[in-house]
Design goal:
three-stranded antiparallel β-sheet, about 50% helix
């Protein structure tokens, strides 16, 4: 088996299945690390390279560009949250209702989407964990001037990328 065949099998089949299964569940960081180490060992074995080669070589975008399980999880779940927030139907409405409830249950007088300094008590709740991850990755949700939209921006290697999000969580009397 060539390295390109092994790369295809792992990235397009194995990691895609893992990413799909993580859509509605959260895996803790220690399990993510163990899974990443396991598939990297398998890949190194398949392409017959020494096990002492640094994992950063395999993760490097110019070489194999494998992502860790935690990176895949973060991308998938934050992307899902953004899609739910952008949804103009029942899913979007229920997401905003849930986030308002989360804001109230954490006794936060400020918008929990806009203020990324807010640390939420998650109680192992899926959406709470996603929002905490987004805040820890410095993904910022900002109020827009038109139509009560919230825009999302995050740091990329090149610049800030805005993403439109409809709706607004704001308590009366809050800034």
């Amino acid at each position: 088996m060539t390295d390109k065949q092994a790369h295809y099998i792992i990235s397009r089949i194995l990691l895609s299945k893992i990413k799909y299964r993580m859509i509605n569940s959260h895996i803790n960081s220690s399990i993510c690390k163990r899974l990443t180490v396991k598939y990297l060992q398998i890949f190194k074995n398949l392409i017959q390279v020494t096990h002492t080669i640094p994992n950063s070589t395999i993760h490097h975008p110019g070489i194999y560009n494998f992502k860790s399980i935690s990176e895949l999880q973060n991308e998938s779940q934050i992307n899902g949250l953004i899609h739910r927030l952008n949804n103009t139907g029942v899913v979007g409405t229920s997401t905003f209702i849930y986030l308002k409830d989360l804001q109230l249950s954490n006794w936060k007088p400020i918008n929990i989407l806009i203020n990324n300094k807010v640390k939420l008590n998650t109680n192992n709740n899926f959406s709470d964990q996603i929002l905490n991850i987004a805040h820890s990755l410095e993904i910022n949700f900002q109020e827009s001037d038109t139509n009560n939209n919230i825009s999302c921006s995050f740091n990329t290697p090149s610049n800030l990328v805005p993403v439109a999000i409809t709706g607004l969580i704001k308590l009366k009397g809050a800034q």
